[in-house]
Design goal:
Layout: E1 2-4, E2 7-11, H1 16-30, H2 35-41, H3 48-60, E3 66-71, E4 74-82, H4 84-91, E5 107-109
Antiparallel strand pairs: 1-5, 2-4, 3-4
Helix pairs in contact: 1-3
């Protein structure tokens, strides 16, 4: 069973083909039968629309209060990150990022 772990999965590139390769590998690890994996196997091109769809699919695999996307401080650093704004909205309190334990956000994917 694969886990979503807080942190970087790709950094230093914004090339669609590089990001797709990385993100599709992660999606395949999380859900090897996801329709996007099948589409790519049949030759769908490396379009920005496909990249957006894969990122949405990765977000769907996130546990609560975690999102998949660019790091707020570095637009070329993609990964799974705590959704501090959502935590603050749901709790009504300010959340100190240093207090967020990434191990609490690991989720086994079955």
């Amino acid at each position: 069973m694969a886990k979503v772990t807080i942190g970087t999965v790709s950094a230093g590139t914004l090339k669609t083909e590089d990001l797709l390769e990385c993100f599709l590998d992660i999606l395949a690890r999380l859900d090897s039968e996801h329709p996007l994996i099948v589409e790519v196997a049949y030759g769908r091109d490396n379009s920005p629309e496909l990249l957006e769809s894969v990122m949405e699919a990765l977000t769907d695999h996130c546990p609560p209060f975690v999102y998949f996307g660019a790091h707020p401080g570095d637009g070329a650093d993609f990964g799974f990150w705590p959704d501090i704004e959502r935590l603050e909205m749901d709790t009504g309190d300010a959340v100190d990022l240093l207090c967020v334990d990434p191990f609490l956000y690991q989720r086994e994917i079955s």
